[in-house]
Design goal:
Herpes Virus-1, 3 domains, six-stranded antiparallel β-sheet, metal-binding, cytoplasm
Length: about 475
């Protein structure tokens, strides 16, 4: 049987020069070259630059007559036989299955030399002491090793794909965080620009008033000085005239003239009054609010960029039955009517409290609590440890895993080992709660005035949850980032 290489070589000899494929219905033209009938017909139909010019062979450029196609039946038979040989020759039955040295079919594999051997090679002196096996027998263990490698590689690929998916999700989260920080920077700087423009207008107006007051006092000073100069000039002129007169006229009323001149006191006017001078010296004090606002702005901006806004929602599985939660689980209202809530280990049964979903085991997080105590009552906000008591009495202090402050009508208390009433500039109605898990800080700030309320220092060892307590008819709170 012809080898695959010889079949391929013959197939190359019966290719059409136009389509480069095997000849189909081969025809011969005047010069003796062969082409597919269809290829040559289409070639003849292509219009040339000169319609009267004779067609030329695509290979040798010899003229030929379009209608003078001669079928080459012998060549067609050769093409058919070659196609049949190509179908009969199985894959792999090429020269690679034959020993290049002896021309015999390869049956064996030498484990020591990793060489494929024919019968003659097998009997050669250099392979007699080696481990030689049939090809399929030798391939079996290697197939098993390949299968094990494939399993390991597939597992590693799956792990990489999981890492890729996880990191892509993390990248999206980071992109969202960057977008949030960008919006915060834009908002805070816009607020700062507005404040600076207002402060600039105020300071410039005050400087303008100082300018006006200085110019007014300058005018008053000029008038007073002119009057004094005029009076003294008149007295000087009178005395000079008196001094030029004869003795009899000079002595006339001399004493009254001298007394009038000597008792004339010179008023020493001031161009700028002490009060105006003090106002000018005190002007830098007008920039103190600006300095204070800039300090607060920088602190707030650093804080906003350092802490991640927490997406807080309330967990109905932990809510006391007297708390009414909104559908979006971001607002709670106190009610004396008990809700039909199934009992479970997570639910508070005596303390009218609720926890947020999720919890934290690392990082810096912040959230906003808006409190409505228009009808009295109290609201407690903070964080609690995961194992905080859900059943029975709940002592709100750090020793029990609670770090919180209580807002009541008219006062705020830090719930430490002993509750401490705090002296604040104003009653907060929006509280910013911030958690630094690694450092162990729980910070409360008036979200409107940026006045610090209280900071707890702790050492967290387990998951902590945002914590909310509520008491009093109509009292409510809502959470946001």
């Amino acid at each position: 049987m012809a080898s695959a290489a010889s079949v391929t070589s013959l197939a190359d000899e019966v290719n059409c020069p136009i389509c480069q494929g095997t000849l189909r219905e081969p025809v011969t033209i005047d010069c003796g070259h062969n082409f597919c009938r269809g290829c040559l017909t289409r070639y003849c139909e292509i219009p040339g630059p000169d319609p009267e010019e004779a067609l030329t062979c695509p290979l040798c450029k010899e003229p030929f007559r379009p209608g003078n196609f001669r079928p080459n039946w012998q060549l067609a038979s050769v093409v058919e036989n070659i196609e049949r040989l190509k179908l009969v020759s199985p894959p792999g039955s090429d020269e690679e299955d034959v020993c290049q040295e002896h021309g015999e079919k390869i049956y064996f594999f030498c484990e020591d030399d990793e060489a494929q051997l024919c019968v003659v090679c097998r009997e050669a002196w250099e392979h007699r002491a080696h481990t030689v096996r049939f090809l399929e027998d030798a391939a079996g263990p290697y197939r098993e090793q390949i299968q094990k490698c494939l399993e390991c590689l597939r597992k590693e690929r799956e792990e990489i794909q999981r890492i890729q998916s996880r990191e892509n999700e993390r990248i999206q989260v980071l992109l969202c965080q960057v977008a949030t920080k960008r919006q915060k920077v834009i908002f805070e700087f816009a607020h700062l620009c507005q404040f600076l423009e207002e402060q600039q207008s105020i300071l410039l107006a005050q400087l303008e008033k100082l300018d006006g007051d200085i110019l007014k006092q300058q005018d008053d000073f000029d008038v007073l000085v002119s009057e004094e100069l005029c009076r003294f000039s008149n007295l000087i002129s009178e005395l000079e005239e008196k001094n030029r007169r004869p003795a009899r006229e000079l002595l006339t009323d001399i004493r009254s003239t001298l007394i009038r001149c000597e008792t004339r006191k010179c008023r020493k006017p001031e161009a700028v009054s002490p009060e105006l001078g003090q106002r000018i010296r005190d002007f830098p004090q007008q920039a103190i609010p600006l300095q204070r606002e800039m300090k607060m702005f920088l602190e707030k901006l650093c804080f906003e960029l350092d802490y991640e806004p927490a997406d807080i929602s309330l967990d109905p599985q932990t809510s006391h039955p007297k708390l009414l939660l909104s559908e979006d689980q971001r607002r709670a209202q106190f009610s004396y009517k008990w809700q039909n809530s199934p009992d479970n280990p997570q639910r508070f049964d005596r303390a009218t409290c609720v926890l947020a979903h999720g919890g934290f085991t690392e990082g810096r997080h912040t959230w906003l609590v808006k409190v409505d105590l228009a009808h009295g009552g109290s609201c407690t906000v903070g964080v609690v440890s995961e194992d905080v008591a859900r059943k029975g009495e709940l002592r709100l202090r750090p020793e029990e895993g609670v770090w919180a402050v209580r807002l009541a009508w008219g006062f705020v208390s830090a719930l430490g080992s002993f509750p401490t009433r705090l002296a604040l500039g104003e009653q907060p109605r929006q509280v910013r709660v911030s958690l630094d898990y690694e450092v162990g800080w729980v910070t409360f700030v008036n979200a409107v005035s940026q006045e610090p309320i209280y900071t707890f220092t702790a050492s967290f060892t387990q998951k902590v949850f945002p914590f909310f307590g509520l008491w009093g008819r109509g009292s409510s709170f809502s959470v946001s980032s």
